[in-house]
Specification:
Length: 427
């Protein structure tokens, strides 16, 4: 617990013979000295510079009582976890009447909603809901989040079965011998969730702290030095071979299977364009689709701008899926699946259903993007060009910002990939 003592320093004697009385605050063997508006003269002090003036002593003790009161609402275990600078700042804020309150969950929800990317929103909201479940409440002041709290959350995620978290009730399996034992999420999951929460926390610091004005309404970072661990990198969905891709292009399918395959092929033909961008894009103009890749547009200087010439090989697909006079390009897909949040699961389910019927290994929509990149590289396209075609964040140098992007190079690369296949749908 912090200790307080009024002190006078001999080397700080003023020209008029007075000394400013400071309150020394010591916490975890580290001290800070807080100046007061109280002054003492030689006749107020003993030879060792201790106070002997009872009136000054009473005023200092009263000031110390106020400082202790400023910390009274901080739980003991929380206070013991903080450093001396946090203690001093807390006292200053309380005694000056300055209070800053920010509901972390409210700020996080506002940030997640503004993200606009369904998949990203889902990942952040999963972490947020887990944190709420761990704390057992729907509100917490951002400055009440502590390092110990974050460590406790990490341990809880690592040791608590998934189906007992995020509002899911633990299944009682005492009388059910067939019930499966819930799997534990593992360290990688907790580390990912902590990274998401830390990102939101830092966004709040960026918004409310002002280094130029020496204003630190959120002075700490409880996520700092939290040990994170991740499982070995997973390859995830592998690229499809040229033979399997040709089989998909040549497939004779109808109904919803046809919609799923057409959308998959269209992504492939548009240099691995993400489903969320296909789903949200307006119809091409003059045979060219212009869009900004949603996943990286806020992280690139060029706002992830892209221009793709719609290959003539997919003209038949466009006529089936698209309506030139509609608001969206894939108008038929919008009718079948009006929710952007559900479209990926919808398409992936259809692709799995078709693969099962054909006796093929299951694949997801993301395979179109990986397959295009893999086949382009095998066909001799440079890695840097492939990276541009995929609109990654990349390792942009200053020169890249000034050099005008040449979409011709990228579309020529796409022509190389398109030429690898027979396109019966052109007939």
């Amino acid at each position: 617990m912090p200790t307080f003592k009024p002190v006078v320093s001999a080397h700080q004697k003023r020209s008029d013979g007075s000394y400013n009385i400071k309150i020394r605050i010591t916490h975890k063997r580290v001290s800070r000295w807080i100046p007061t508006n109280l002054n003492a003269y030689a006749y107020d002090l003993t030879r060792s510079l201790n106070l002997k003036n009872k009136d000054l002593e009473w005023k200092c003790n009263d000031l110390i009582r106020q400082m202790r009161a400023a910390l009274a609402d901080v739980p003991t275990f929380v206070l013991e976890e903080q450093d001396i600078d946090w203690v001093v700042q807390r006292i200053k804020d309380k005694m000056s009447g300055k209070t800053f309150n920010l509901d972390f969950f409210v700020f996080a929800e506002e940030y997640i909603t503004a993200t606009k990317i369904p998949a990203t929103q889902s990942n952040y909201r999963t972490a947020l809901n887990s944190f709420k479940e761990y704390l057992g409440k729907e509100s917490i002041d951002i400055n009440d989040i502590t390092h110990a709290m974050v460590l406790g959350f990490k341990e809880w995620v690592d040791t608590t079965p998934k189906r007992s978290r995020v509002g899911r009730k633990r299944q009682e399996a005492k009388d059910d011998t067939t019930a499966k034992r819930p799997k534990l999420p593992g360290g990688g999951n907790s580390s990912i969730q902590i990274m998401k929460l830390a990102h939101i926390y830092n966004k709040a610091k960026d918004k409310y702290n002002d280094e130029d004005e020496d204003l630190y309404l959120i002075p700490r970072n409880p996520f700092k030095n939290v040990p994170l661990s991740f499982p070995p990198a997973q390859t995830g969905q592998k690229a499809l071979g040229q033979e399997l891709m040709q089989r998909i292009i040549s497939a004779d399918a109808t109904g919803s299977d046809r919609v799923a395959l057409d959308t998959f092929i269209l992504s492939f033909a548009m240099m691995g364009m993400n489903l969320c961008d296909l789903y949200a894009s307006a119809p091409p103009k003059g045979g060219v689709l212009r869009y900004n890749r949603s996943k990286t547009r806020n992280r690139r200087a060029d706002h992830a701008e892209m221009e793709v010439i719609v290959p003539e090989e997919v003209a038949a697909i466009c006529s089936r899926l698209c309506s030139a006079d509609g608001q969206y390009w894939l108008s038929d897909l919008h009718k079948r699946c009006p929710s952007a949040e559900n479209v990926t699961a919808y398409i992936n389910k259809l692709l799995k259903h078709w693969a099962d019927k054909e006796g093929l290994p299951p694949f997801t929509f993301y395979a179109a993007r990986k397959t295009w990149a893999t086949l382009a590289r095998k066909a001799g396209v440079e890695k840097a060009t492939i990276d541009e075609c995929l609109v990654h964040i990349g390792d942009l140098k200053m020169a890249d910002i000034y050099i005008e992007k040449d979409y011709t190079i990228m579309n020529d690369a796409n022509r190389i990939v398109m030429a690898l296949f027979d396109w019966p749908m052109m007939e």
